[in-house]
Design goal:
Elements lengths: L2 H19 L11 H8 L3 H13 L3 E3 L5 E3 L4 H23 L6 H15 L5 H19 L2 H18 L7 H16 L3 H24 L3
Antiparallel strand pairs: 1-2
InterPro entries: GntR_C, TF_FadR/GntR_C, Tscrpt_reg_HTH_GntR, WH-like_DNA-bd_sf, WH_DNA-bd_sf
Keywords: DNA-binding, Transcription, Transcription regulation
Protein name: GntR family transcriptional regulator
Length: 215
């Protein structure tokens, strides 16, 4: 594949992924090459490549007839994902606190979170992006490229499930992130692990509550 085609494929992938994560493309949506080629203003080849990437990341799957569709994430799936995330990310938080690496980026994220709480509420996309960057930076500080990739994939699937639909989590989540960052910056490994565990446990509780009381 030449560079131009690869660039178009990556662009199509990012745009389709964004549509899945923000709920524009709902679970079970059929991903027709021609339809999305027309929608994105590209040929069918980049769309075909994008669909392949979506499948490889678990954002799409093949139906029984072989047609690609947006993946469904069940409640049992998300509970398992959050359990695995807790195992991995609590350890990552502990290692990050003991890493001895620069915490400059974490402090930048901290300032942004304080800004969220003190100023106008950010758009869901902005807050979601910061949430992802923060968790991945903690994994980076822990010193494992594989851990970064795994956590990134699990966070994407978490986002596929809630799609920012639990607004009551915004303020508590911000405060939980501040406690987590402060523990890591203070090099308190046990407190960092405990803060991460509390944060993910509260995410789990909020999702279960939202399922039972959606409005």
């Amino acid at each position: 594949m030449d560079e131009a085609a690869q660039t178009l494929g990556n662009s199509a992938f990012k745009r389709m992924k964004a549509m899945i994560l923000d709920g524009t493309l709902e679970p079970g949506t059929l991903l027709r090459e021609k339809k999305f080629a027309d929608r994105l203003g590209v040929s069918r080849t980049p769309v075909r490549e994008a669909i392949g990437q979506l499948i490889s990341e678990g954002l799409a799957t093949r139906s029984e007839g072989g047609a690609p569709v947006v993946s469904r994430v069940s409640l049992s799936d998300i509970m398992e994902i959050l359990h695995v995330r807790s195992l991995l990310e609590c350890e990552a938080a502990k290692k990050a606190a003991l890493s001895g690496k620069s915490m400059e980026l974490l402090l930048e994220y901290r300032a942004q979170i304080v800004g969220f709480l003190e100023g106008p509420r950010p758009e869901a996309e902005v807050h979601s992006a910061l949430d992802s960057h923060l968790h991945l930076e903690i994994a980076r500080l822990a010193g494992s490229k594989l851990l970064i990739e795994i956590i990134d994939g699990l966070k994407v699937k978490t986002r596929m499930f809630d799609q920012g639909s639990i607004p009551d989590r915004f303020i508590p989540g911000c405060h939980e992130h501040l406690v987590l960052i402060d523990a890591i910056v203070a090099q308190s490994a046990d407190d960092a692990a405990a803060a991460m565990k509390t944060h993910l446990l509260n995410v789990r509780k909020a999702i279960i509550s939202h399922i039972h009381h959606p409005f």
